[in-house]
Amino acid sequence: MKKYYILLFVALAAFSSCEKLLDKEPTDKLSIEDLFLDVQGAKSALAGSYKALLDEEHYNKNTMVYPEILAGNIKFSKNTNLRLEDVYEATVDAQESSLNATYSALYSELNNVNNVIKYTPSAAGAATEKAKIVAEAKAIRALIHFDLVRIFARPFNFTANGSHLGIPLILNPQLYSDPAPSRATVAQTYNAIVTDLTEAIAAFDDTNVGVLNGGTKQNYFTKASATALLAKVYLYQNNWDKAFELADELIKSKQYTLLTNANYVASWTGRVPSSESIFELAIETVFSGTSLGAYYESTNLSSYRMYAATLDLTGLYSATDIRNTSTMFNRVDISGVNYAFTKKYQGGGTLATPIKILRLSELHLIRAEAAVEKTSPDFTIANADLNLIRQRADASAATLNLTTKDAVIDAVLLERRKELAFEGNLLFDLMRRKKDINRADVTPVVKNLLTNDDRLIMPFPANTINANRNMKQNPGY
């Protein structure tokens, strides 16, 4: 029988006292048959899929910073050794784009998670464990495709039915002998994402616990976290009724509770998930590498500290908002200029903190937005959700009683920018709402970009286009 091989990250780092996560560097290769011989091997592969999400090309920098630095929340606090400078300057080209590495990394992640989905069912072991492994892997695959389609394709509503070009949709392990992939439509991509999440949710049990030992429930995809992601996907797909239904269902389940004003700032320190965290990427106890926090760490005098908040963002917070510059930011004078660095990811190295992907506050804002867009609009719930998040942060904030859809949408977008700053959402929120990019406190020659500007969508790597006649480049590159 022909044997296929997979690079296996066998240098293990402790994820907890029980399970192991696969380290970053490949040090050996095992055949697919050997790796998926039993359920324990499948678990190791699944752990590796979670660990890969923490690569710098994915959530440990690129996909968290790119939507913030291009849309106006981030500016540089230095002038040399910059990361994502071409994105900031809106001068990306297909040959040397900072996001080329992200494209390659995420498709590599897809191939690994596709192996988990394909080969786990035939591994020796309990059927219940195997079903949960596959369900978690499908949720990870949905997340990766969701990230890719937002970076490399126009939003779903760019055309009436999402019929414009999306990304290569990879649902099976890819071999060198396979035909070169082509771009699916955005609609096809979202349909695949929805299918993966729907199937995962159906397969999960109600314990809300992942199949891997150790860590916390927030570190794995479960029925609750997959539901939260699906609500967000439906929001991006303009499926307002489903987005509202799922967000409403999860909020009312009371599995998660909003932090109080008094506990908000402290919730961003340490490695224990907060009561409102739904899904976050764990950091191993022995982690000491470069983390997302290193780029925001105010006391870090190395080459990594560089991402400061713009006045465009900090000027949105009132003096009594717990998220303002006196409480949620570290202020530092650098060469006579005062910069503000977020406390959301303030630690590097051994002080690195988990990366939060989905929080209950976002579910409230998803429900608020969908409430006024759904078939039977509900302004009462929309206003209640908006007031809840606004007044949690600022007890002095006026109580809203908005009566038009446009007013609610504008209020939701503003609150999403303030509440979810530095969490990788701003650019995508503006584009799906067909809003222009307006930046003031930045240095690029090109500060403002219209919503249909080609530079808001990243190019596919030139090498990918040149090597694959089936691939079509994005306009403008």
From TrEMBL:
Pfam family, one: SusD-like_3
Domain annotation RagB/SusD: ranges: 302-477
Xref: InterPro entries: SusD-like_N, SusD_RagB_dom, TPR-like_helical_dom_sf
Keywords noted in UniProt: Cell outer membrane, Membrane, Signal
Superkingdom in the source lineage: Bacteria
Major subcellular location class: membrane
Domain SusD-like N-terminal: 44-235
PROSITE patterns: PROKAR_LIPOPROTEIN
Subcellular location: Cell outer membrane
Protein family per UniProt: Belongs to the SusD family.
Protein name: RagB/SusD family nutrient uptake outer membrane protein
